[in-house]
Amino acid sequence: MYENKTEYIILNNMLAEVTAPVSKEEGSLIYDALSPVANELAKHYIELDSFVRRAFIQTSNSGFLDLRAAEYGLERKQATKATATLNFTGTIGTVIPQGFLVQTVDGKQFRTIDPVTMAAGTATVSAQAVDVDTPYNVAANTITQIPIGLAGISTVTNPSTASGGTAIETDEDFRTRILTTVRNPGSSGNVNHYIQWAMEIDGVGAVKVLPLWNGNGTVKVAVLDSNRLPASSDIVDDVRIHIEAERPVGATVTVVAGALYDVNVACDVTLDGTKTLTEVTDAIRATIEDYFKDIAYQQTVVSYPKISALILTVDGVADHTGLTLNSTAENVTLPSTSVARLNTFTIT
Q1: Which fold is adopted by the domain 171-257?
Q2: Residue burial 100-137, b: 16+ Cβ < 10 Å; e: rest
Q3: What does the mean pLDDT of the chain come to?
Q4: CA dihedral of residues 220, 226, 228, 229 (deg, nearest 10)
Q5: Domain boundaries, the chain
Q6: What is the CA 285 to chain-centroid distance, rounded?
Q7: Helix 7-16 vs helix 29-54: crossing angle, to nearest 10
Q8: Buried b / exposed e across 239-268, counting CB within 10 Å, b at 16+?
Q9: Structure confidence at residue 201 (pLDDT)
Q10: DSSP code at position 258
């Protein structure tokens, strides 16, 4: 906005205002007196340009975006901790205390939420990550270490994937939510209202609302986490409690986690010689998974032409043939509350 307010332009403008018959050449008294002033003014214009950008939601960021959001009663959603189910084995009668520490091989630590007593040589208990963010959504059978041993405990593992760990809301996601709230105001329990209520909960990344899904007065709210995957039971419960406190009298609200819909992708690729087949396969997989994340609850169709085009953008791919989605050369239509998940992926 202030591109024309450079030190050079400011200095020359000031020199032009000097009407006295004195030298204005570089090194002259008047030139040397005005040059530092021009330099400082140019710095202020640079800073002023950034302040103007911070004044608008579309261009603001970090703490300044938080301040703009506060004007509409919105707050940035915070990161959440992953939870996992643990199976212990050991001596009958051993008590595993609340807060007992376990971890993965690479040091991601979890603490048990409740105390539990070993019965028949086994015990099952829920645990929560010691820190927030998505890396704690670890795969099944990876929580196997006991850093501080306890007599009577032999082994530990997590039979299923840990879930619910989400990152703090990014500037871009927060900006989108603010603009959506402002441009689509919720009122009297309309669809926009339910979306706003659900999106206010930490860890929620996307929402789909189905009004009248089971008759008059019924509303279904399907929730994804910030990773655009089905929300954990804790997040679903938080959304349900919040909506129950806000919903209109008489509405029957059902809150569920979104569902996954498997999409199988296969195609033949021609390599251009710059990448190996393994490198190309990994890159294509990541590209398709990013596409599925982008369309989650935004589109109800996985586009065959779009995936074809995405494959061609991957480094190392010269061409491809025989692309199929779920064994057909057609778009894949997703159920109403489902998001696409790349299931089998075959590249030859």
Answers
A1: Alpha-Beta Plaits (3.30.70)
A2: bebbbeeebbbbbeeebebeeeebebebbbeebebebb
A3: 91
A4: -80
A5: 7-54, 81-157, 171-257, 260-347
A6: 19
A7: 130
A8: bbebbeeebeeeeebebbbbeebebebebe
A9: 92
A10: -
Q: How does pLDDT run across 21-78, given as a tens digit for each residue?
A: 888 888 888 888 989 999 998 888 888 878 888 889 999 988 999 999 999 989 999 9
Sorting pLDDT into bands at 50, 70 and 90, what band is 1?
low
Residue 114 has pLDDT above 80, yes or no: yes
Please give the single-letter amino acid code of residue 256: V
Please name the residues in contact with 103: beta carbons below 8 A apart, sequence gap of 6 or more.
109, 110, 143, 145, 147
Q: Taking a C-beta distance cutoff of 8 angstroms, is the pair 161, 179 a contact?
A: no
What are the DSSP E strand ranges found in 46-185? 81-90, 95-96, 101-104, 109-112, 116-117, 122-132, 143-145, 153-157
Task: Give yes or no for a contact between 318 and 266, defined as CB atoms under 8 angstroms apart.
Answer: no
DSSP at 135: G
Structure-token pair, residue 190:
């309309």
pLDDT reading at 229 higher than 80: yes
Return d(Cα 10, Cα 3) in angstroms, integer: 11
CA neighbor of 205 nearest in space, from 179, 242, 235: 235
pLDDT at residue 153 tops 80: yes
Q: What mean pLDDT comes out for the span 142-170? A: 93
Measured between its terminal Cα atoms, the distance across the chain in Å is 52
Distance in angstroms (rounded) separating the CA atoms of residues 210 and 253 = 10
Average pLDDT of the segment spanning 302-319: 94
In the chain, % of residues over pLDDT 90: 67
